[in-house]
Design goal:
Length: 508
């Protein structure tokens, strides 16, 4: 694909500075997400919330991001990328501050939803800026640089989040966004050229409402299904009907309307679809890890927030190394073998985590999380490159928001599904352990056992019940990691559908 006039006019130094200017905003978003994962257990305890209630701190953010992501293709054409980028950063900062000042779960969830509305624009705008700056044969390198820089947030996010949570409380986690956001504003204003608005087609308000209703109903179905006993509940049936019918009408609307909310022409590109599928896998697993690893480390393996943050630091290091190497490899090779390496790393990491026990030391945990970081780094860069390797320039804004939307939905589904499986597996394990309850049961003989057993009184029975509950939940976490491993392995054959890029400089 030929370079645009703007790409030719920019020097290599200018291109690098433009790419660097997008890093603080991405780092802000990444740090917010991963630090939130570390802060969730303390937030749950401080506000006396259930695991279902606290999961909405993540899911409300992700639902909002999924609903509003497509808006930014239209807004970018109408307002210009740079102006819109600055506006989005300001909104994200505002609601980060409001979250930090909240004192109840409903209040936090409301502000996280609004924060997610602005977060929806960060990723597609970043992609658009990179695609507009670099020619096609440099996309892999550019996305590699970008991910290497952005993943610094993954390195320091859990660590800093753990330290701040332990010493100052969960509220401070959201104030970390302020210095990164201000840096992003300065760099965006001074380094990124001002682009002229292209003029925009009429906004598809009907399509927007259809998608919002569909995503919202689907999320409510996922989050309330277990508590309402799924399809035995009229409420869940109503949610599922609304979600399914909304999706059906939305699909027909997109293919029959000239100015559709999502441009269906993008979906005719096979490489984009395959790249989007791997983006879905990436975000599903990544947000699953965000929701699962901090609680098991803190609540079941006994690590305080700061130590849990230290244990998760290798993930960011692995991601940075893999993203940098991926950027170099993509200049010579197509994304297929790199995606395979990423998926293999994720599957191996999930297997290592599924082998955790209460006697597992910190080194095996850090090694599993490091391998996980390699997988996330390889997949994050290669999936985006694969999706855009054969996309016409005219469809890039639409493609960027559709890809971001798919990844947002994957994040939301990942959190909800894995929390759902966690609850169901906990119930099943609790039943099994209760039926085979004995002082000689190896599953129950760990450090949580009281020193003096006396099952002849209420206190003894209460202690025994607490041990069973704790062990059941631990088993459920292990079960989730196992499911993630098999899911990644099962999806590996999809790599065969990915074609080589039209750029002949790349090897097969």
């Amino acid at each position: 694909m030929a370079a645009t006039e703007t790409q030719v006019r920019l020097s290599e130094r200018q291109k690098l500075l433009i790419a660097l200017s997008t890093i603080p905003a991405g780092a802000m978003q990444g740090m917010d997400s991963f630090a939130t994962g570390v802060a969730l257990p303390q937030m749950q305890g401080a506000l006396s919330a259930t695991i279902t209630e606290v999961s909405w701190v993540l899911t409300a953010y992700l639902v909002a991001a999924a609903m509003f992501t497509p808006v930014y293709a239209w807004l970018a054409r109408k307002l210009g990328r740079k102006r819109l980028y600055i506006f989005v950063i300001c909104g994200f900062l505002l609601f980060s501050i409001l979250v930090s000042q909240s004192s109840s779960i409903p209040e936090i969830v409301a502000f996280r939803f609004l924060q997610g509305c602005f977060a929806a624009g960060l990723n597609p705008l970043t992609i658009q800026v990179v695609l507009a700056t670099f020619p096609a044969d440099q996309h892999g390198k550019a996305f590699g640089w970008l991910q290497t820089g952005r993943m610094s947030a993954v390195v320091i996010g859990p660590l800093v989040g753990g330290v701040l949570t332990e010493f100052f409380g969960w509220q401070v986690v959201y104030l970390m966004n302020i210095p990164l956001g201000l840096t992003a504003l300065v760099m965006m204003h001074t380094l990124v050229p001002t682009d002229k608005p292209e003029g925009s087609k009429r906004f598809d308000l009907f399509g927007f409402f259809l998608l919002a209703i569909c995503v919202g109903a689907f999320q409510l179905m996922l989050d309330n299904g277990q508590r309402r006993d799924w399809f035995d509940s009229p409420e869940i049936i109503i949610y599922s009907i609304i979600a399914a019918s909304g999706f059906w009408v939305f699909t027909i609307h997109c293919f029959s309307t000239r100015n559709a909310y999502l441009n269906p022409a993008v979906l005719k590109n096979r490489d984009f679809i395959v790249g989007a599928i791997f983006g879905f896998i990436l975000n599903f697993t990544m947000w699953g890890y965000v929701g699962l690893i901090p609680p098991i480390l803190q609540n079941h393996l006994g690590y305080p927030p700061m130590d849990a943050g230290v244990l998760m630091t290798p993930r960011g290091i692995g991601t940075m190394v893999a993203a940098f190497c991926c950027g170099l490899l993509l200049q010579r090779y197509n994304p297929r073998p790199i995606l395979f390496l990423g998926m293999l790393s994720l599957a191996l990491s999930s297997w290592m985590l599924s082998e955790l026990s209460r006697e597992t030391g910190p080194f095996p945990i850090m090694l599993a999380i490091l391998v996980q970081g390699f997988g996330l780094g390889f997949m994050s860069t290669a999936a985006v490159t694969a999706a855009f390797q054969n996309i016409p320039a005219s469809l890039r804004p639409d493609a960027s928001v559709i890809l971001s939307l798919i990844r947002r939905i994957a994040s939301s589904i990942g959190v909800s599904v894995l929390f759902l499986l966690l609850v169901r597996s906990t119930h099943t394990a609790r039943q099994s352990l209760s039926e085979h309850a004995s002082l000689y049961n190896e599953r129950l003989r760990h450090s949580l056992l009281p020193e003096n057993w006396d099952l002849e009184n209420a206190a003894g029975l209460s202690n025994f019940g607490e041990v069973i509950d704790a062990e059941a939940q631990f088993i459920a976490y292990i079960h989730d990691f196992t499911i993630m491993m098999f899911a990644v392995i099962a999806l590996m054959p999809l790599l065969l559908l990915l074609r080589s890029p039209k750029n002949t400089k790349l090897r097969k």
